Amino acid sequence: MQAIKPQVSLKELTTFKVDSNADGFLQLDSVDDIIECLSQIQQYDQRLVLGGGSNILMVGDYSGLILYPQLFGINLLDESDNDVLVAVAASENWHNWVLHSSQQGWHGLENLALIPGTVGAAPIQNIGAYGVEVEQFIDYVEYIDLDSGVQHLKKQRECEFAYRDSFFKKAGQGRYLVTQVVFRLLKQPQLNLTYQPLASYFEDKPSVNPADLIERVCEIRRSKLPDPELIPNAGSFFKNPVVAESVYEQLKQSHPDLVAYPVDEGFKLAAGWLIEKAGFKGVKEGDVGVHTQQALVLVNYGETDGRKIWQLAEKIQQSVLQQFGVVLEAEVRIEGRQA
Ligand SMILES: Cc1cc2nc3c(=O)[nH]c(=O)nc-3n(C[C@H](O)[C@H](O)[C@H](O)COP(=O)(O)OP(=O)(O)OC[C@H]3O[C@@H](n4cnc5c(N)ncnc54)[C@H](O)[C@@H]3O)c2cc1C
């Protein structure tokens, strides 16, 4: 069992790579470790479970306890003619798991290749890309309630999955620690080519197999998204806003090229389009900026103060609100705000 370390730098543990020190930092190497450390963990009111740090912006030091699970292992639990049930520990790398599952002949996750981060974080914001959301392939999630110390299992339908949202995310930071995610994957691939660029790419190919799809998804992502190892970022900074049909109709009248698509609650607007139209694509302010290829991604060109990134984000939010009357909500978790 490891001890709580004081004043640990989070700079290299988050993909925005800004300065931030945590008051306390606790690495947890097993589920038993977590249970043994509970009373120490519970002494902190403010807690944050850290995975790969690819969806977090630190805007100051963290005056609480960072929990850093290091839980590994992939286990085939059950198998039928059609599918497999596989338990994957929280700290496994997401992309490696996608590759591994496909190599084993377990299918469904192809479109989610190359998303950074860990398996344990995937259900938190219900990661999604190119027409697929992870909720479609989760059977249940195992987690520990850090307030009570009780270990739970939540079936997929109880996880309250929605667009970049879940029961775990709604509960706020530091309450639940996901220990493993159990996936139900298909033995016969049913490739999802609903995302237009995938459909048009494979249109004239005689056949497409899961490995081809993974390769194409990776190519598209590499061409559009900055590699956090080279240009620190946290992917899409904002969620695509969902508006009522009446709001969409009004906007479409004044902006015929508006990019949006229908969803149950109305229309989902492309936040990248709004940001680009507001004039921010490729903008650089000091050492922070908006990516030149993808307006939804804020990038760090060498800034050490996360507040500068947040300031640019707020400026974008205000400008989009003024120009379109639409509220942009951060997808990235903002942490380290001082009270
Ligand atoms: C270049 C780039 C591209 C991206 N593309 C996409 C994309 O296409 N689709 C998409 O959905 N996301 C995308 N993201 C965002 C990010 O990769 C995902 O949100 C990912 O799931 C975060 O994983 P992580 O391990 O880095 O989580 P972290 O950033 O460490 O944490 C994110 C949240 O999850 C919580 N958390 C992490 N692990 C656990 C755990 N074991 N138990 C409980 N809570 C936990 C944290 O407390 C925090 O609230 C992208 C990010 C980057 C940098």
What is the N-to-C order of secondary-structure elements (H for helix, E for strand)? EEHHEEEEEHEEEEHEHHEEHEEHEEEHE
Count every beta strand, where a strand is a DSSP E run of 2 or more residues. Answer: 20
Task: Categorize the overall geometry.
Answer: globular
Bound molecules: flavin-adenine dinucleotide
Please, could you describe this protein's structure?
There is one protein chain. The chain is α+β, with helices and mostly antiparallel strands and about 350 residues long. It has 3 domains: about 5-70, 2-Layer Sandwich (Uridine Diphospho-n-acetylenolpyruvylglucosamine Reductase, domain 2), CATH 3.30.43.10; about 75-225, Uridine Diphospho-n-acetylenolpyruvylglucosamine Reductase, domain 3 (2-Layer Sandwich), CATH 3.30.465; about 230-335, Uridine Diphospho-n-acetylenolpyruvylglucosamine Reductase, domain 1, CATH 3.90.78. Helix content is about 25%, strand content about 30%. The protein has 9 helices and 20 strands. It has helices at about 30-35, 40, 95-105, 165-170, 195-200, 210-225, 245-255, 270-275, 305-325, and strands spanning about 5-10, 20-30, 45-50, 55-60, 60-70, 75-80, 85-90, 130, 130-135, 140-145, 150-155, 175-185, 235, 240-245, 260-265, 265-270, 285, 290, 295-300, 335. The strands form 6 sheets. Strands 6-7-12-10-11 form a 5-stranded antiparallel beta sheet, with no helix packed on it. Strands 1-2-5-3 form a 4-stranded mixed beta sheet. The protein has a 4-stranded antiparallel beta sheet with strand order 13-19-18-17, with helices on one face. Flavin-adenine dinucleotide binds next to strand 3, strand 8, strand 12 and strand 13.
